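can u do me a favor
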């Protein structure tokens, strides 16, 4: 497990400011050196174009927009990511994204660490 390391650049796609801020602090405590936070699909796609993250954590429900749109772009680029939702048991991702990790809100530091380390970067 020595060859598995924490991603250094994580993109949070979350429309709830409090959740985004808390997640940012937890990621920094876990050793992530750069955390970028955006709250919409357009902002996420711009951030990915600007600099591809090592990992992304994507809220599925972005106030009327779908985080699956961001996940599709990341999957096409082979960038590791996980979805986050308060409705994990009700979510049915598109077939192309069905095997991507989904963590339930509220998530803990241990849950975040686990999903980040599983990303393998």
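np, heres the sequence
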């Amino acid at each position: 497990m020595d060859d598995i390391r924490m991603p250094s650049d994580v993109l949070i796609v979350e429309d709830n400011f409090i959740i985004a801020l808390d997640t940012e602090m937890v990621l920094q405590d876990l050793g992530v050196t750069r955390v970028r936070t955006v709250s919409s699909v357009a902002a996420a796609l711009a951030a990915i174009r600007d600099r591809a993250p090592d990992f992304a954590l994507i809220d599925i429900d972005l106030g009327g927009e779908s985080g699956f749109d961001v996940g599709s772009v990341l999957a096409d680029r082979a960038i590791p990511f996980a979805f986050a939702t308060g409705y994990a048991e009700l979510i049915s991702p598109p077939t192309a994204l069905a095997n991507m990790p989904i963590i339930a809100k509220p998530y803990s530091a241990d849950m975040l660490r686990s999903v980040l380390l599983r990303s393998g970067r």
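The chain has a mean pLDDT of 90. hope that helps!!
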